[in-house]
Amino acid sequence: MSTSTRFTLKFPVVSMCVLAALCGQANASELLDALAEGSASASMNLRYESVSQDNAVADADALTLRTFLGLKSGSYKGFSVTAEVEDSRIVLGQGDYSVGPTGYNVGQYSVIADPETTELDQAFVQYQSDSYTVRAGRQVIALDSHRFVGHVGWRQDRQTFDGISLNYQISKDISAFYAYVNQRNRIFAQAADLDSKDHLINISYQSPVGKFTAYGYLLEIDNATPNSLDTFGVRYTGAVTFNDVKYSYTAEYATQSSETATLDVDASYWMLEGSATFSGVTLLAGYEVLGSDDGVYGFSTPLATLHKFNGWADLFLSTPAQGLKDAYISLSSTLAGGKGSLVYHQFDADESTVEVSDLGSEVDLVYTKAVLDNVTVGLKYARYSAGDINVDTDKLWAWVSTSF
Prior knowledge:
This protein has 404 residues and is mainly beta. The protein has 2 helices and 19 strands. It has an 18-stranded antiparallel beta barrel.
């Protein structure tokens, strides 16, 4: 398997200008003091993954090791610099899998989206004051539940963005976030990165009865083909405790328009979710609908942490043209010194046709346990039973991770 090495950065000019200004205004002693106040971090994640699918390609398995090494300077007049390198390796030759969409062994094995790669994961200059934070460079951006914008941290090569972002605390209860992104560094290494012209806007108000959020995500791939994906939505989350039971609830609604040279469509999204936590046990139920436009287009969330939603088997990373209804229920609890969860999904089409109505079901299991202060082990399993589309799929993960 070939190796991808990525050290490009789409916002070097802004970062270098800020650094030059910072160095020009400081004496050597002050800069050395800021550097001495900095910190270093490291983490490793060794994971085995296997995939078995009822199709013509071979079953896949992979043993990979992800390593993060990070440095963060101290602060000088509000300025600081963060840099982090990420490396993902196949261990002991265990790497019979496809990566996709333009990766290794495409069409030979089932997909495990963990390419071998070495890259600059984050590299940004930050200015922070009492009320706002500005970052310029490569950075992680994760908003709300990650449903629309996230870092896909489950994969060994997580998603980051090149751009500039502003987080502004307007008042004690109101905050606003804006980012302009001109490159999406996706989870498939450099070959699948996308130049973009994305605007991300997220404004929230923390009221006495819960948190209200309004957002607009205006996405465009920067190429010669006309395209746009504009999403506007609102979200509410709240919680209340009654008789030692904590009740949490979430409601969300969004509309989306997608325009290309050959297609001009609209779709809507809504989600309701509620949970009750008592004596270390959490019961959760939810219903999510990614709508369809006349069965030709399904609501899309290309910047999301997609593995977190619609089943861990990842059969719905792209929404079917018929849309997707996901009714789910989960049980989570502490168990033998660790934490375990059982999740069930029932999938259906939003706009059913004679050929496509039942989209299958899925059972997910996960258990994690901290065995030392900084070492965690985990087991995870997903079993998807096919409906009118996709194929029966089994996925198994086992991992050990550490950070220091």
